[in-house]
Specification:
The protein has 15 helices and 17 strands. Helix 3 links the parallel strand 2 (about 35-45) and strand 3 (about 60). By secondary structure, the chain is α/β, with parallel strands linked by helices.
Length: about 425
């Protein structure tokens, strides 16, 4: 059969991995796709590097739109990232009737509704398995494998940089700043790591997971985002003593009144499999009403793991390119006319979870009684408590409280009152807690 011609825009880490794997496994991929898939043209700002990688077997240019407007190219693979040129490339490709494969979670989380609507109207596919959790096929699992299920919740370690930092802080007892410098030295963290450590990257991915799980438009602007920069080594140590580990989780949860969509550091029981995901690895746990709890684990970044997902999308598009557009798997799992426009993302005041509270208080009688009374007034029950013995001559101590599930608004009110106590020193440290049962 006639080969599928691919235009690759961006031949950096992931683009280079895609070129390598597609050529190395060409025979196997052709057998699975039913026809050859070949990259016939590459666009990259660094033309010389692109020529070295491709070895003269593909047309190389620095003009991305020469590929987008080339009638001989069937699929555009966009791997340049960002919201600017990447959006223009994707929208023009769709307008030209080309299918698109992308790893650009930021673009889809912010502009996905516009992009998917344009693709639907034009009858082309936008595939994005590589946009969430690298080589882990979580998008396919949610869109297809779990399609019989009502998804109750999904929770994921979906940023390898932050997971590496938290793993090192726990293992070595080091501060956040010390481990961040080490992560940058080893190449796990960018020179400017803001998107990773502030939770933005994980929120982009969680937004896509929520849309596919619940059939809602992508709404990144409504996600709650909290990074790991304020975590202290002492909190990781206290959590460990109580049988928990702290991970940065992206969480999407169905509730009666809407959807919780949040990214923040989270205490997880140490006995859960996901709590034991270390280093730069990723994992996503999904709870469906029929299947129960399922776990997806693997490399969330890197040249060949991410290329694995890009090429899987190329194979899917190749298989379905000639199919009636109405009978393809919908971009966000639900048929476009069956999306839940009126299922809201809940404000944080409405979310329900447990809490880890660390109080720094004067070591004197009656303080604990005052704290427990405040919690009781907000109908917050205590699950566990840890009180550190003050050092000799030290007049202050840490009290750690784990609460049962309550509303965030109740926790906010209780924390405000505790911080008003004369014996309380400074702010209460609050970290959310999920049992993930």
């Amino acid at each position: 059969m006639k080969p599928i011609n691919v235009g690759l825009i961006g031949i950096g880490t992931v683009g280079g991995g895609t070129w390598t794997v597609l050529n190395r496994n060409a025979e196997e991929i052709t057998r699975r796709a039913g026809r050859p898939i070949r990259i016939t043209a590459v666009a990259d700002r660094n033309v010389e590097t692109a020529k070295q990688i491709t070895g003269g077997t593909a047309r190389v240019t620095d003009d991305a739109f020469s590929l987008v407007n080339d009638p001989e190219i069937d699929i555009i693979v966009e791997l340049i990232g960002g919201y600017g040129v990447a959006k223009d490339v994707v929208m023009q490709s769709i307008a030209n009737g080309k299918h698109v494969v992308t790893a650009n979670k930021a673009l889809l989380a912010v502009h996905g509704t516009e992009i998917f609507t344009a693709a639907q109207q034009k009858g082309v596919m936008v595939a994005f398995e590589a946009a969430v959790a690298g080589g882990i096929p979580i998008i396919k699992a949610l869109r297809e494998g779990l399609t019989a299920n009502r998804i109750e919740w999904a929770a994921g370690i979906i940023n390898g940089t932050t997971n590496f930092i938290l793993s090192e802080m726990r293992d070595k007892g080091l501060s956040f700043d010390e481990v961040l410098k080490e992560a940058q030295r080893l190449g796990y963290a960018e020179a400017d790591p803001t998107f990773d450590i502030e939770g933005v990257d994980a929120a982009h991915k969680a937004t896509l997971i929520a849309s596919i799980a619940y059939g809602i438009p992508v709404q990144f602007d409504k996600a709650y985002i909290e990074g790991i920069t304020k975590l202290e080594a002492s909190d990781i140590k206290y959590a460990e003593q109580l049988g928990y580990r702290i991970k940065l989780l992206g969480i999407a949860k169905r509730r009666e009144k809407g959807i919780e969509l949040r990214v923040h550091p989270t205490l997880i029981p140490a006995k859960r499999l996901i709590a034991n995901v270390e280093g730069a690895m990723n994992a996503v746990v999904v709870k469906g009403d029929a299947v129960g709890t399922t776990l997806y684990y693997g490399k969330g970044a890197g040249a060949e793991p991410t290329a694995s997902a890009v090429i899987a999308d190329l194979v899917d598009v190749t298989r379905l390119a000639t199919a009636d557009a109405a009978h393809r798997v919908p971009h966000l799992a639900f048929q476009p006319d069956a999306m839940s426009e009126n299922l809201p993302i809940l404000p944080m005041s409405e979310i329900e979870t447990g809490y880890y509270l660390r109080l720094r208080v004067e070591d004197k009688p009656g303080v604990l009684a005052d704290v427990t009374r405040i919690l009781a007034d907000q109908a917050i029950s205590i699950d566990a408590m840890l009180q550190r013995e003050p050092a000799e001559g030290e007049g202050e101590t840490d009290i750690i409280i784990l609460t049962h599930v309550c509303k965030e608004s109740a926790a906010d009110a209780a924390i405000a009152r505790i911080e008003g106590l004369a014996a309380q020193k400074g702010k209460v440290k609050r970290i959310r807690l999920e049992e993930l049962q």
